[in-house]
Amino acid sequence: MERRRWLMFAVFSFLLVCSSGRELKLKSKGHVPVYNHTLVTIVVHYASAVYMSDLTALFTWTCSRCDGVTEGFEVIELVVDVQNCLQAFVGVAKDLNAIIIAFRGTQEHSIQNWIEDLYWKQLDIEYPGMPDDAMVHHGFFSAYHNTTIRHGILDAVKRAKKYYGDIDVIVTGHSMGGAMASFCGLDLIVNRKSKNVQVITFGQPRVGNEAFASQYSKLVPNTIRVTNGHDIVPHLPPYYSYFPRKTYHHFPREVWLHNIGLGSLVYNVEKICDGSGEDPECSRSVSGNSISDHLSYYGVDLMGETWRSCRIVVDPGLMEYSRTDIRGNLLLSRDPKTVLKLNNVANPL
């Protein structure tokens, strides 16, 4: 019995050495993102907080998810596109010395319908630095580029850099929010000539074909896509190896969270995948059939706290910081040096 236990321990230890990604710095040629477990497990809390529907608590960073490792974060822009049910914020994390941009994903209550919509056609993209055969997902591209979101985000980043200097930018999002985050990171680098931009997404779907993914990885090399277990969304839209030009294709670098174990021993592994974007030994090695794996990463819920429509809920005392457009979309903005002193009582408009 003791020999069997020792053998199990030895094999298990070998698997951990081969697979574990805790604080691992990947050594490779070229521009390869470094997976930092501590940083990513902080950023996931921002991807969670952006789901909050109490805009007053979110804007003043007093919401139920706005404490712990993100305490002291200062929101300078909160954008709610009611027409398209989109939400994002920009703020400054002083402990990270970085601007954080977070995009909300799809509400879990409508995720099944959203998954069915992931079979939408691709769009030929005419974009600076992209090859002629690059194609992207029409819905994801439009959600970032053709809504209220983009203008509000870029304006806030400009104001933040004017006050804090040319600090790092970390763009994050979960699910569809991850897709939007990837387009935002690309936009900042290509069109705004930003430097030190890092993209960290969770449960992100594929957003373009192989030509797009290949060029994206060169333009936005500091990108980490975290996938979890059997999460269904990273498997969508489908990947078809026999349609190399047309099929959707992930860009690197994937970090796959999964469990390994022998007998009663189970360990959470963070596997850093290869540079192809479609590593057959990472999330593609399992069936993507789990919605529950999609809704929690690193033990953090990535979903709305309650079911709500996309109506705006904000305290009247916040109105001096707000403006709306003719479609009813809302932007809450403040100068980075302004200190907010607001009550945390949210009332529906």
TrEMBL record:
Keywords: Hydrolase, Signal. Pfam families: Lipase_3 (PF01764). Residues 100-239 form the Fungal lipase-type domain. One of its GO terms (biological process) is lipid metabolic process. This is Fungal lipase-type domain-containing protein. It comes from the Eukaryota. InterPro entries: AB_hydrolase_fold, Fungal_lipase-type, Sec_MonoDiacylglyc_Lipase. Residues 1-21 form the signal peptide. One of its GO terms (molecular function) is hydrolase activity.
